[in-house]
Design brief:
With 414 residues, the chain is an alpha+beta fold. It has two domains: 271 residues, Rossmann fold (3-Layer(aba) Sandwich); 141 residues, Jelly Rolls, CATH 2.60.120.1360. It has eleven helices and 19 strands. The strands form four sheets. Strands 3, 5, 6, 8, 10, 11 and 13 form a seven-stranded antiparallel beta sheet that branches. A six-stranded mixed beta sheet has the order 1-19-16-15-2-14, with helices on both faces. The protein has a four-stranded antiparallel beta sheet with strand order 4-7-12-9, with no helix packed on it. Helix 7 runs parallel beside helix 8. The longest helix has 27 residues. The chain starts with a helix and ends with a helix.
Amino acid sequence: MIVFTKKILILFFFFSSFLLKSQTNTHTHSDFNFVNYKENYIHLYNDDSNFNTLFKKLDTLLSEGKGKVRIMQIGGSHIQAEIWPDRVRNNFLQLSPDINGGRGFVFPFKIAETWNPKNFQISYTGTWKAYRNSVKKHKAKWGISGITVVTTDSISSFNIGYRSDTLTNYSFNRIKIFHDTGPKSFIVNLKSNLPSKTIIDHDLGFTEFILESETDTLSVEILKTNKTQTNFTLYGLSLENDKPGIVYTSVGVNGAKTSSFLRNQLFVNQLKSINPDLVIFCIGINDAYNPEFCTTCYENNYDQLVDWIKSVNPNVEFLFVTNNDSFYKRKDPNKRVFEARKVMISLAEKHNAGMWDMFEVMGGLGSIKNWENYGFAKKDKIHFTDKGYHLLGDLMFSALMKEYDKYLKSKDEY
């Protein structure tokens, strides 16, 4: 009886908070005639397909306040902009008070002179050279982020802070800076008045600073301390705290294809520090933009990425997201979306995963014109406006919560 009551309370709290959010956010209302709400659910193709491993951890977090739930969303420019992932992240954090586990893996994109998410600010000193996995002529080592920056300045620095107008403050006391740790590398020094402990992990390639208390700003200097040191290579950072909670990481690179991420030779090693429970794959819009789109190559590339991630966490679960509707060179609907969609279904079946059909939820072929007419997509007929990405985030989160609701009800039946 106690267990049953607890589950009812969880459901009541969840749906109360979700409904309250709906009343203050029109994007969760089903009143946009250009959205196909009937398709807004997670497609599961096998009888034993589910997200129960993820939901069990989420259930324990929400009902007992224990553990970390780690989610990672991967894609191209849709994800680098961070508007869509940040919307989903904040929706998750509203499920219960005090479940903010930290910001997760981030990259200071401004140093690479590319689009930096609006929800955190970067400043830096020194001259840096940037390499992106989506640029064929770039040759470098990449980690999870798919972007690498290198400096030969003997004294350089960077700072990260959160904007005062962001929805959530991501305080942290654990800072992992992923970089080359060999003898030729400059060292990392944390500029902070807070007492801290420093750990250098040469195997996984990071320097970790553990603070005695939390902060929401980071200031780091890169220093040359001996003659053998010649440069500093930065792959990204992880910002977390020691509290139970949700850590929602997004990894996006402008122009990235599935093959781009296969260039990330440090991906698996660095992924061990994230160890995601759910990976949301949103790579494909750039693959299918090419008239020479190879569906077999596309599927094989995804298979390789799945294998990499499973080598870190065999129990990880996957959600494959179909490409959004788009136009080729702004002229005609890109019908290669149908080929990519078939691959996503095949991948979901093969890997016992879920599929969220963003293409059909948008309204199918040519629907991005309607999104543009209502101010939810940009004129390039590929990308979305801020409110368009917010809507996508709300819709995808709603689809995930429908599955979580089924999980809770199935548990109460036993």
